[in-house]
Amino acid sequence: MTDLLEKAVAKARVLAPEMQDEIARLMLAFVDDGASLYRFTPEEEAELDASEAAAARGDYATDAEVRAIWAKHGL
Q1: How far is Cα 72 from Cα 33, in angstroms, rounded to an integer?
Q2: Is residue 72 assigned to a domain?
Q3: Are the CB atoms for 9 and 26 separated by under 8 Å?
Q4: 73 belongs to a structural domain
Q5: Does residue 29 contact residue 37 with C-beta atoms inside 8 Å?
Q6: Distance between first and last Cα of the chain
Q7: CA atoms within 13 A of residue 33's CA, in its CB half-sphere
Q8: Which of 18, 13, 12, 9 is nearest to 39 (CA)?
Q9: CB 39, CB 50: distance < 8 Å
Q10: C-beta of residue 48 within 8 angstroms of C-beta of residue 40
């Protein structure tokens, strides 16, 4: 291990466990360990599950619903 990486790891050791985990995920992703850079929150997981279930049912927004969303955001 290089001196620079040793210094970075030493500084990381004093960080909160959540921050250490985030650094670890980034490092693993950088070295192509298959780790994801981002982890969904439980709420995001639930939203994704609901979205995938709706898509499986063929439950998509209508054109009018999409236009309303666009109009709401000035698009």
Answers
A1: 42
A2: no
A3: no
A4: no
A5: yes
A6: 51
A7: 11
A8: 18
A9: no
A10: yes
Tokens of 35: 């780790």
Give the three-state DSSP class for 32.
coil
Residue 54 to residue 26: CA distance in whole angstroms: 32
pLDDT digits (tens, 9 = 90+) for 16-50: 999 999 998 888 888 876 656 677 899 999 999 99
Residue 2, SS3? Answer: coil
**Residue 65 within any structural domain of the chain:** no
Contact call for residues 27 and 35 (beta carbons, < 8 A): no
pTM beyond cutoff 0.85: no
DSSP symbol at 52: H
* Res 57 pLDDT > 90: yes
**Is position 10 within any domain?**
yes
The pLDDT value given to residue 15: 97
Classify residue 9 by its DSSP letter. H
CB 57 within 8 A of CB 50: no
